[in-house]
């Protein structure tokens, strides 16, 4: 028993050490490797009008690949080797029901580096840090008219070179033999993405190549957070796409709020959000949205969206859209009948006040973790005023109790993924070009007998998308109302249901 306890303590110390080490490396990379210089130069250098995907030029894609290889080659491990090979698979097509797939969604690392929005491909980068020579290889499905009749056109080898700028392209099924032929016995440090791979089949093929004793290499390295570090700082063109995504979603939210009435079903609001986002040009919703009436808002990942929206209750909606690879993530909470009750208004304005407090402190050098602490302290202070805690509660107890009313973090990084660059520490200082969400929440279960009755069953979250700039935070979702009067006005402007939904 004693020994078990000792192991637990040792394990705890080791984990803390590893987290600190990762944080140190990430901080060092951000501060000393001039990622920000690349960001600043990107504002002028990417004026090439040859776009690979809407808004992102060939030059920028080439720049991303080169930056990745520079970072890997200068990594603590990487600097011991001159030759580097990077291998990354595209996502696969997930099947929903016999023979019929879900809509395809590309692996975001793969899309970031290639612009190729097609399943199953494999990207290989061959970099020499001494000569700085970089070769870009794409393994793609070959053109096959019979297959394409069913699945649609594939890019094929020719377009991989002509359009996507690959130096060479080969058929996917020649991957293993071609890699053996080209890179065997050349002393490479091979980087690949092991964690969070989005293609189990290709991963097996890559792993068997790397584990094959006949395939000589100097080292095999997990990609880790290096690519995410580059993705953390958004370029000018990425910022444009993120702004467009935020604008589309904000407009859609406004329409949904305006058209909400008692008697509608949560799924109606889900449908309206998706309709408005797609009509305005978004390809997807960023994730299955949360549309939670009343007490369901206290279930953080409630996505059933099947319940009736009742007179007198609030509805919380958390959603966003994806616009050419870049996502938005918004939450608003509003009264189903268009008018906040006194208790709802009290708690809503409390959350809004907490968000505004955090926004005031959101500037260069502070971190998401720091802003999270500000949220917790501010929530504690405000909730105490409303009689949530007894007067003589210690500050340690208070923090514990507050975290029951808001169990999630203030925010996360945002970009091509909703929870973007998840391996990066939220203690990193904010820098221009980063995009974060700010989403304080307050969740009072209907079964919580320790709080005044009028507050029970109310769940509120307010979430905006914020770009860090040289002149402070820029709220990309600012056009969407969040003040009580604004929301009531918006809902009061309802004349007749624009969508003929029967209630
Ligand atoms: Mn979020």
Automatic annotation (TrEMBL):
Entry's family note: Belongs to the peptidase M24B family.
Keyword set, alphabetical order: Aminopeptidase, Hydrolase, Manganese, Membrane, Metal-binding, Protease, Transmembrane, Transmembrane helix
CDD domains: Prolidase (cd01087)
SMART domains, per the entry: AMP_N
GO molecular function, one term: aminopeptidase activity
Record keyword Secreted present: no
Pfam short name (any one): Peptidase_M24
Residue ranges crossing the lipid bilayer per the database entry: 5-25
Keyword field contains Manganese: yes
Gene: LOC100209955
Cofactor annotation: Mn(2+)
InterPro entries: Aminopep_P_N (IPR007865), Creatin/AminoP/Spt16_N (IPR029149), Creatinase/aminopeptidase-like (IPR036005), Pept_M24 (IPR000994), X-Pro_dipept-like (IPR052433)
Residues in the signal sequence: none
Domain Aminopeptidase P N-terminal: residue ranges: 56-200
Protein name, as recorded: Xaa-Pro aminopeptidase 3 isoform X2
Domain of life: Eukaryota
């Amino acid at each position: 028993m004693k020994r078990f306890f000792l192991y637990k303590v040792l394990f705890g110390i080791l984990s803390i050490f590893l987290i600190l080490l990762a944080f140190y490396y990430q901080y060092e990379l951000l501060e000393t490797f001039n990622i920000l210089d690349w960001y600043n130069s990107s504002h002028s250098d990417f004026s090439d009008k040859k776009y690979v995907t809407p808004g992102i030029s060939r030059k920028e894609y080439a720049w991303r690949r080169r930056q990745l290889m520079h970072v890997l080659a200068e990594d603590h491990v990487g600097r011991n080797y001159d030759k580097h090979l990077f291998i990354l698979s595209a996502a696969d097509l997930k099947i929903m029901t016999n023979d019929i797939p879900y809509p395809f969604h590309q692996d975001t690392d793969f899309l970031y580096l290639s612009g190729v929005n097609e399943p199953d491909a494999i990207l290989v980068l061959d970099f020499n840090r001494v000569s700085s020579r970089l070769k870009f290889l794409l393994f793609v499905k070959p053109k096959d008219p019979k297959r394409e009749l069913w699945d649609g056109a594939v890019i094929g080898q020719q377009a991989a070179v002509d359009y996507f700028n690959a130096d060479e392209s080969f058929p996917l099924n020649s991957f293993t033999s071609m890699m053996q032929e080209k890179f065997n016995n050349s002393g490479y440090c091979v980087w690949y993405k092991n964690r969070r791979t989005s293609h189990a089949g290709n991963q097996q093929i890559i792993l068997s190549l790397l584990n094959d004793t006949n395939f000589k290499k100097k080292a095999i390295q997990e990609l880790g957070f290096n690519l995410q570090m580059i993705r953390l700082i958004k370029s000018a063109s990425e910022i444009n796409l993120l702004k467009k995504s935020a604008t589309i979603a904000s407009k859609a939210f406004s329409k949904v709020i305006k058209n909400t009435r008692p008697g509608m079903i949560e799924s109606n609001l889900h449908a309206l959000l998706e309709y408005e986002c797609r009509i305005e040009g978004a390809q997807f919703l960023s994730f299955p949205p949360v549309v939670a009436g009343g007490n369901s808002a206290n279930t953080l990942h409630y996505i059933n969206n099947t319940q009736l929206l009742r007179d007198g209750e609030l509805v919380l909606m958390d959603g966003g859209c994806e616009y050419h690879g870049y996502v938005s993530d918004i939450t608003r909470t509003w009264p189903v009948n268009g008018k906040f009750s006194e208790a709802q208004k009290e708690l809503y304005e409390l959350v809004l006040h907490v968000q505004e407090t955090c926004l005031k402190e959101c500037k260069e050098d502070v971190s998401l973790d720091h802003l999270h602490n500000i949220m917790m302290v501010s929530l504690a202070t405000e909730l105490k005023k409303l009689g949530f805690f007894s007067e003589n509660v210690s500050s340690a107890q208070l923090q514990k109790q507050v975290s029951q009313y808001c169990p999630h973090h203030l925010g996360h990084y945002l970009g091509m993924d909703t929870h973007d660059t998840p391996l990066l520490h939220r203690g990193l200082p904010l820098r221009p070009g980063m995009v974060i969400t700010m989403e304080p929440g307050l969740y009072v279960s209907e079964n919580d007998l320790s709080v005044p009755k009028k507050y029970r069953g109310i769940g509120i979250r307010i979430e905006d998308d914020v770009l860090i700039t040289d002149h402070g935070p820029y709220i990309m979702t600012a056009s969407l109302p969040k003040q009580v009067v604004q929301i009531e006005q918006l809902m009061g402007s309802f004349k007749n249901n624009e969508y003929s939904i029967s209630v």
